[in-house]
Structures are given as C-alpha cells and as structure tokens.
Amino acid sequence: MTTAIETTSGAPEQPGALPTVACCAPLARTPLSLAEAQGLAGVLKAVAEPARLRLISLVAAHEGGEACVCDLTEPLGLSQPTVSHHLRTLVDAGLLHREKRGVWAYYSLVPGALDEIARVLTTTTQS
C-alpha cells in the first residue's frame, strides 16, 4: 500500500515522490522533524538492499540512462518477478521513473533524486 507524503505546502505529493526532507538543510545544520526522519528512512530502506543498489547502478549506467526489466534480470541473476518487485520498490521510493511502452516497462533515474539524498546526508555546511 502506498501513501501520499505531505509536503511543506500541505498538499499531498504523488506516491513515489521523494519526501520533503530531500529539499531540507543537511543533517549537520538542522535536525530532522519526525515526519522528515520517517520520509528519509523510507527512501533509505528502499536502497538498503544490495540488489536495489545494483539496479540503480545498472539503470544509470545503461545506454541512454534507461533500461527495460528484460535487460536487468541476467546481470542480477534474479528472476523477472523478483527484479520487478525491486524496481517497484525503487519507483515507490521516488528514485526511479517507470514508463510503459507496449508490453515492456522502461526505468530511468528520477533526475536529482540521489543528489537530494546526498545533500541531506552531507556533513558539509555551506553559508
């Protein structure tokens, strides 16, 4: 079950969108609120699995920055349903974008999604 994440404007985002915490100050500058911590934990939980980290890497490195699920099963050594499950988790976390083309689904990184997570986790503070 997917739930909408509340933004700072109070409007619900689309399921799969990165939590509001992704646009906030680095942890070293401003403590996270409970809602921000829960949102960030959900995204980190999605990437805290070796197959999912490899999927992000495989999709990013694939020609054109997008890959079909059929291109990802062999490199991972997992069945198509398992790969599809992991891809859906990454889409729901707001890290991958899914585009249906005929019977195939193609995946690409959400522009800036990983950069936003890195920005929150950085210990460098900028004025």
Automatic annotation (TrEMBL):
Boundaries of every HTH arsR-type domain copy: 32-127
Gene Ontology molecular functions: DNA binding; DNA-binding transcription factor activity
Any single Pfam family the record assigns to this protein: HTH_5
Keyword field: DNA-binding, Transcription, Transcription regulation
Organism of origin: Actinotalea soli
Name the record gives this protein: Helix-turn-helix transcriptional regulator
InterPro entries tied to this protein: ArsR-like_HTH, ArsR_HTH, HTH_ArsR_DNA-bd_dom, HTH_MetalResp_TranReg, WH-like_DNA-bd_sf, WH_DNA-bd_sf
Alphabetical list of CDD domains matching this protein: HTH_ARSR
